[in-house]
Fold these 2 entries.
Entry 1:
Amino acid sequence: MRKEIPLLITLVSGLVYVIANFFNVPVAKATKTELDQWFLIATAFAVLLGVVNLTIIHLNNVSGQKSGWVYSLILLVSMWGIIIYGLFRTNQDPFYQNILYNRMLNPLSATMYSILVFYIASAAYRAFRIRSFEATLLLVTAIVVMLGRAPIGDLISPALPALTNWLQDIPNTAGMRGIMIGATLGGVATALRVIAGIERTYLSGGE
Amino acid sequence: MHFLAGLQRIDRRILYILVAAVVIYAIVRPIGLPIRVNPQTQMTYNFIDSLPAGSTVVLLLDYDASTIPELQTGALAMGRHMFARGIKVIGASMWPQGGNLLTLWWDQLKKEFPDKQYGVDFINLGYKPGGQVWLEGTLSSIPAAVAGIDAFGAPLTQYPIMANIRTAKDAAAWIDLAAGNPGVPEVVKVIGAQGVPIIAGVNAVSVPENLPLLQSGLIKGLIMGMRGSAEYEKLTGVAGQATAGMDAQSLAHVLLVIFIILGNIGYLAAKGSDAGSKRR
Amino acid sequence: MNLDTVGVWIAALLTLALYSFLWRENPLYRLAEYLYVGLGAGHGVVVTVDNYIRPTIKTSLLQQGKWSYLIPIIIGLLIYTRYIRSVAYLARWTIAFFLGVGAGIVLTRDFKPYFVTQLTATFRSLWVPGKLSTSINNLVLVIGVVTTLTYFFFTTKRVGLLDYSARVGRWVMMIAFGAAFGNTVMARVSLFLGRVQFLLGEWLHVIRT
């Protein structure tokens, strides 16, 4: 029954959505509305999973005094510190929004992703080579779009932003649409396999 | 080996320093390059302009702090436009930082529109988990989908803005500014499927995959990254952070194109040099 | 020195600590990195509990008496059984529920906008009288979509017309990826711009914000 019950859960929950959407069955529609709420509640209560995982891994580092354990301690203190403070504060407390979010999490989050500009510059400089016709096509398109999307494109030539818009509106749309259609067909096929119990990789391990 | 071949091996830290230098220079000494408005942004502006005064829209800020320069600037510009036209805004988010970003958004606009009141002209429903399934829940009842409270724990029943908005379809439009998943595709699939007009704003990375949605009519307008936000600022007549960054954007792009060209000159020189020495 | 000034300095120093990685990895960078992970993970829990778990328990369960919500609460909590070896298999029930709902949503929501609407939007007039540019654009769009789709035919041998079509499809995708790269560069530069505007404006007051 260890594999049958999860398969049954998947089948029933998936079928409720299918019947509610494609057939006019009031009890299915009502069940689907209830399942929506159940999904939200279950997702919310599973939110601690990442935190539990991080706690186990980094507590191990700290207790075993492994290399870099001080950083693990910083992670644990900051994570549980913000959780405990956040859960017991009043809603009007400005410290959480003004300091913890605006002045710590916000700049850390923004800076972490902004470092990518240097990596993409370095990657573009090193990897973009005219090795073949297709590589050249990609390179030329990238250069046209980069210059055309910035205001300097208008200064270089009015044809540049016009060409950029054409490249984005026509060939790019065509390519992306083809990929989108193919991906949707693949997604629908996978969804059918999951509901029918043919796709069972999520059941493997942990007997 | 040809001396030009060395052009493909410039130390990456020189590139880093140059990128930082041109950006800092352009921000400290703006050039003032004119910004032309693209049709996608104009469509967005025209749509919001066509909404009757007093209508209510749902504004989703589905991104985190890293995308503030691209989308928060656009959100502020759209917010100015909507408040100037008397449009009410229900804010929500499918991303954990979205509620805080809505607070920042409201705090900024409240200074510019002191007559606007929380609960009357704007409400922050905060972050709600569940992504697309949360959106499904809003089709039957928005209050139920948000557990009956706003981002600060206050019951929705006390706020006039929620009086006539029970379900997703009661809003005049849904505006989703998103940097990934969950985001625009989910809103299009669930809310758009009900015939509710959707306006999208995406970071530049997501622009190519959202253009087919605009072209097929699934969304009524598209703000394309920081450039789109700068264009919207121009249309509303208030130059903000996005406009201020456009010169730096231009110079950084030119620098990168120069380095790509240099790298290819070096590559071709090395290739020619290798071919020549093989022949000899 | 007020709290806001202290806050700006904290934000600036954390920003510079992360940027120090560009020179080489160092303890300041690692401190900022681990702090970011800890705060980010914790913040997600706080907003979820504040915005959903607490009101669900208080309003839906205790005030409105919707005791059926205990079932999804238990389903959600079952995911933590993965840490207890003897009952770890129960975590599959949670995953099965999420997958079933997710698959149901894909089947009912994805097909129309991402397949049917995209196909119908591709049915464009190949000849529009009096509008040569529109005709050419429509032709390029239709050929582009069809050839891109033929590129993904991996179960048949690529000979003749299919081979040419797949090659053209590859070229169309190269243009799409080139446009994607150009936009990605724009996005990354924008992220960096925001930080520079903060450092020069709010922190050093070199520019007006």
Note: DSSP finds nine helices and no strands in chain A.
Entry 2:
Amino acid sequence: MSSNEISRTGSSFRDPAGFMFTHQGTLYRQINRFGQDSYDALMTSGLYRHLVGKGWIVPHEEVTSPVADPERAYRIIKPETVAFISFPYEWSFGQLKQAALRTLDIQLAALNRDMILKDASAYNIQFHRGRAVLIDTLSFDPYTEGQIWEGYRQFCQHFLAPLCLMARQDIRLGQLFRVHIDGIPLDLASKLMPRLSWFRPGMLMHLHMHARAQVAYAGSDVDNPGQNRKSRRVSRNGLIGIATGLRGLIEKLDWKPTGTEWADYYQATNYSDDAFTAKSKHINAFLDEIQPGELWDLGANTGHFSRLAANRGIPTVAFDIDPAAVEINFRQVRANKEKHMLPLVMDLTNPSSAIGWANVERESLGQRGPVDCAMALALIHHLAISNNVPLDQVARFFSSLCHDLIIEFVPKSDSQVRRLLGSRKDIFEDYHEDGFEAAFSEYFDIKSSKPVDGSERTLYWLSRKLPSPTVSES
Amino acid sequence: MKLLIFSAVMLVLVLNPAHAYLDPGSGSAILQGIIGALAAIAITLKLYWHRLLRFLGLRKPIDDSDDESYDDADQSESRGG
């Protein structure tokens, strides 16, 4: 695909200390001379070694080439590759919480070694081998006694506000992050929080008072330069206290899907045990043939079938629209220390689009593909019937996402589809197995199809015919 | 007076690190000063309280290493691997 060209990453432009770029498919970070002191301090203070030892920062090696901008360059580093870049609005509650705690732990570790986190962006955290790690090696500055944490506001907007809203008001409020790319504005969060939150000292100070302080002092530096300087000193103990306080507050936040029993959450499916076993057997046989390097499971629920791939060591992303399913999946990843599974919240009828500056800062789902192999099990009826997408358009979209596709066709006679059609007129004339094969044959070769014993469904292995058609984003 | 001017100049110098690329925001910075001061007092009090308890033999010295509930097992794993 890409050549010898050096291309700068779209999200990497804010910090003059350096930037990311790709060269021949490999990701590098250039450290500019502007960031020389900070980088050297990170490496010599023992902080880098400590964080790598803990598994809290993505490890890197220094390389001599390629150099993207020789005039400014101080060092080039090659970080370990993160299999899939995800964004905070795609994380479940538990994932955002882990990312928040990781950020605070890194801040505390830094302060311990005369360094400080200069920012607190949720986008700087990624899930790598099942764990939250900091990917921005340039997030540190040497600590100067008395200085404030410049990333305090950012931390509250990126982590505290969405976590409080999700835990205390409504899980869906986390999606405000999609609109507010730099985190949820604190005045908005303060308005949306329940009244009782005013009686929680942590929420009172870091959210409500914080929001009011922003309004009260907006522009005060312009009006009275220097007047407020004195109150802007924070001692090291003060910074440690702030980070520890935030940590305690966030540690206590919890969210459980209401009205769902955790234990039997996955029971409401249409399978007999036989069908479940048959389906697993066919998927395993397909995976044996395909041998994918990476896999996306579209509509993965809690990741039962995704694990057929992940347990083979295939980096697997398990997307689901339901934050409860994703949360359950993530807790399982944590509990079993799974390294190859990344659960994410994704609405496939409205997948993540490219957002941010010049629309290139955060990639759309499609831009992060195509992936070697995708699975779409018990999904097609939700797209074709609930969302009225014609089958050929479903096929076209899938062909833009993956090379090989393991897909389950769910016929109208299936109880799940009957339920969807129960309350509406059946306007889906082409929705049958022949119609499905005709639509998908436009874009894929049918390599194999297996009836799922114990159900009326069919499992297909499809392989893409042509190079991916460019799906226009408009 | 000289001392006052000197400290004012120092404050401005110290508080405007050349590397800052994020705007901390005036309100956030001022609030941080207040919360930071409160937190520092709390930490100091806690420290003396623990010292007192230890002095009275009511508590064993605590291990200061950062132990998190979260990822202890992962740590040993990554060290091993």
Note: DSSP finds 16 helices and 16 strands in chain A.
